[in-house]
Amino acid sequence: MADKKTLRIKYKKFRENLSEESIEEMSLQIANQALKLPIWNQTYYHIFLSISSKKEVNTEYVMHILQGKDKSIVVSKADFNSGEMMHYLLQENTVLKTSKYGIPEPVAGIEISPKMLEVVFVPLLAYDQKGHRVGYGKGFYDRFLEKCSANTIFVGLSFFDPETEIFSEANDVPLDFCITPKNILDFRK
Fold first, then answer.
1. Which residues are annotated as a binding site for substrate?
2. Which InterPro entries does the entry mention (predicted)?
3. CA dihedral 148, 154, 156, 162 (to 10 degrees)
4. How far is the C-alpha of 17 from the C-alpha of 184, rounded, in Å?
5. d(CA 106, CA 97)
6. 83 is in which domain, residue-wise?
7. Which of 46, 105, 121, 183 registers the highest number of CB atoms within 10 A of its CB?
8. Whole-model pTM?
9. Structural domain count, the chain
10. Binding residues for ATP
């Protein structure tokens, strides 16, 4: 069973070795895979805005799908003092600014409660065959996902295949799905 600290180091290295070209290509493949999910009859979709310096999945492609389907898109702003995130409806006039941590965030806007969110696209470094994920270790997403409705669908996005098993803690919220460039993993079984 892999521990989170080791996995963070391993997957940060994996990402470092990805070219910009392969990140874009795999991000587009992930967006195309997302179209196969049974999630498109919802209204409120939360998506993370990619931190390009950390070579995250580029979520612009998924965002284009959401916009094309006229969905309500919600993005977050992290408060590193409280460890909480505020969630805002993304509109045409929403101003995005990159935080000192390199995270693109809305400056202000219409705040949306986590309980209203029906689908959340979740960033991760690694995940396992049961849907447990490893993030950057600050716990922002675990605290956020706990506040969502029991029916909210959590979808991880990853360039990589799952680990067999990750040590998980009681407050870890598992994913329902994870999308890779080649597969969709369904953890709801």
1. 51, 56
2. FTHF_cligase, FTHF_cligase-like_sf, NagB/RpiA_transferase-like
3. 120
4. 23
5. 6
6. 4-112+125-186
7. 46
8. 0.95
9. 1
10. 4-8, 133-141
